[in-house]
Write a structure and sequence with these properties.
By secondary structure, the protein is α+β, with helices and mostly antiparallel strands. The protein has one domain. The protein contains 3 helices and 6 strands. The strands form 3 sheets. The chain has a two-stranded antiparallel ribbon. A two-stranded antiparallel sheet has the order 2-4. A two-stranded antiparallel ribbon has the order 5-6.
């Protein structure tokens, strides 16, 4: 089985703590974690022994009026902290000044030291 086919069990609390630490404090209120990690935290967040199978953290930015500047600031901070752009797939290239707001691509990043598209509980 190749690396992409392997999905590790992770503690939702551990991953959310890591994400919260990486996000600039003044933008945390703009980030909404959704998807399997959010569901895992809702159901298992109080018990670190209970884990979920996921390979990424899905987030939205709100309110909409602050989404673009907040997203830009968060992405720049993560780049400064050595996170790397996930260049494969449909979202491999960032938008630029000529990209309409409603056509800006999703930013997909790997944490520092990541060797695959997964968050490791020990990374």
């Amino acid at each position: 089985m190749n690396q992409e086919g392997i999905v590790k069990l992770i503690s939702p609390s551990t991953v959310l703590e890591r994400i919260a630490t990486a996000i600039p404090a003044d933008f945390r209120e703009n980030i909404i974690v959704i998807g399997s990690l959010a569901a895992g935290y809702y159901f298992f967040g109080g018990n670190p022994k209970l884990q979920v199978r996921t390979k990424d953290v899905d987030c939205l930015l709100a309110p909409r009026i602050k989404a673009i500047p907040a997203g830009e600031a968060v992405a720049n901070r993560l780049f400064d902290d050595q996170w790397e752009l996930r260049a494969e797939g449909d979202w491999g290239n960032p938008g630029d000044a000529t990209t309409p707001d409603n056509k800006l691509p999703v930013v997909r990043l790997h944490p520092p030291g990541s060797t695959c598209q997964q968050l490791s509980p020990n990374a």
